[in-house]
Design a protein that fits this description.
With about 425 residues, the chain is of the alpha+beta class. The chain is built from 13 helices and 19 strands. The longest helix has 21 residues, at about 25-45.
């Protein structure tokens, strides 16, 4: 028993357990409120003529100002498309409203948004789709966008236009081109001025959805052995051992769409990635608790969470373990929000404590603020689309599994997992 919440644990899988949450009425009411507020970000901030979703907005519901004004993120747009499916299912908006916004978005993506071999630029103008900030045609951000495209394609499968456009957008992505000369390791992206980025997706992170989409591609697939071409670093922290090493979001993003439960890949480092994310989340909580002597106002058993986010000194791709010298007591609510689908027994008390302790300074129009620092008293002025998005999708998978169910109906994903020699776990 944790306060008002009771959690049940299911059968053991490997070294850990897959937890199934038995949510109380209070938990459901909180998650409904958090999810609905999170969805409002995409509904209110998304451009009604293009469907593109801003990278960030003001915490109070206002539009972003300064350099970020009118800048859309294609990854945030993928979260937003998925949010339409959740909102229609939960009747926050009507079926027709969701369908209309999905149609507008897919029409723009298919016919007007600039792309290179099917890959979209990371940051674009919300109203025109023009490339912004000399950003790259991004492989991972296109994959996160495609997560939303394929989800609406299944949720609104009775609409032939939606199905056709979703298939068109997927089919024209040339994943073989993004290998850029490598036999099986994808590039981070491409720029018209300089060509392919020298960095590759060659170590465990948020890359899983990208590789499965590429292996299962209906038109430009890459070899199935590409799944085994990237490094799987092993982390050991207190009693937890898992694959990882990056910020907590790297354990979350692919899982927002891909259902890794009861599945593991093959080979000497065979891994159940859902269980792996459970272990990583528990380890991260203990890591934050270890920082309590240095930051007693910021971290504790029910006050924890650091992942890539804003900070008082700008955007930081931080987390842990291990310790980063830039950690200054900042809390990032989407660290726990994005792991709701893995570990509700530790994430719900954390989020409720943040809401109850810091009130309207941390929890407002679009749910949780992007980041804040109880040690220094700094509170962000913004929310970020991808951080609001991972919280929304993770909460929905915890409550219903709907995003997993819709996305996994795309035959290409089970096919890719089969080709990559996944087996039941």
């Amino acid at each position: 028993m944790i306060g008002r919440r009771t959690f049940l644990a299911s059968a053991l899988v490997g070294a850990g357990a897959i937890r199934v949450a038995a949510l109380s009425k209070d938990d459901e009411a909180f998650l409904e409120d958090l999810s609905k507020r999170s969805f409002l970000y995409f509904w209110e901030q998304g451009d009604s003529h293009t469907g593109l979703v801003p990278d960030r907005a003001k915490f109070d519901g206002g539009v972003a100002t300064g350099r970020a004004h009118n800048v859309a993120s294609i990854a945030a747009t993928g979260f937003g498309l998925t949010g339409l499916c959740i909102a229609a299912e939960r009747h926050w908006i009507t079926e027709d409203q969701a369908l209309q916004r999905a149609q507008v978005t897919l029409r723009f993506l298919a016919g007007r948004l600039p792309n290179e071999h099917g890959f979209y630029y990371h940051f674009v103008d919300c109203t025109t789709g023009a490339r912004i900030w000399a950003s790259e045609a991004s492989s991972i951000d296109t994959a996160l966008l495609l997560g939303g495209v394929l989800t609406v394609g299944q949720r609104f499968h009775r609409d032939p236009e939606i199905v056709r456009l979703a298939e068109l957008i997927y089919r024209r992505i040339d994943f073989q081109w993004m290998l850029s000369g490598s036999p099986n390791v994808l590039s981070h992206g491409w720029k018209p001025e300089t060509g392919f980025i020298r960095y590759r997706w060659d170590a465990y992170c948020e890359l899983a959805i990208l590789y499965l989409l590429a292996i299962g591609s209906p038109a430009h697939p890459i070899p199935p052995d590409a799944w085994y071409a990237w490094w799987r670093p092993r982390v050991s922290y207190q009693q937890y051992k898992y694959v990882g090493g990056g910020p907590l979001f790297t354990h979350q993003y692919s899982h927002a769409w891909v259902d890794f439960r009861h599945r593991q890949d093959s080979g000497p480092l065979s891994t159940n990635y859902f269980e792996n994310s459970i272990l990583a989340t528990h380890a991260h909580r203990l890591f934050c608790m270890s920082l309590a002597p240095k930051f007693p106002k910021s971290y504790g058993p029910n006050l924890w969470g650091i992942t890539a986010s804003d900070s008082a000194k700008g955007y930081r791709a931080w987390g842990g373990p291990p310790f980063h010298t830039s950690i200054d007591g900042t809390l990032v609510p989407c660290a726990a929000g994005g792991s709701l689908m893995f570990t509700p027994e530790i994430c719900l008390p954390d989020l409720l404590n943040m809401r109850d302790t810091f009130g309207a300074k941390a929890y407002g129009h679009y749910g949780f603020i992007d980041a804040f620092n109880p040690t220094t008293g700094w509170f962000d002025s913004d929310v970020l689309g991808i951080d609001v998005g991972i919280t929304l999708l993770s909460a929905e998978n915890l409550r219903s599994g709907n995003v997993w169910r819709w996305f996994m109906r795309n035959r290409e994903i089970p096919k890719a997992m089969h080709l990559a020699r996944f087996r039941r776990a």
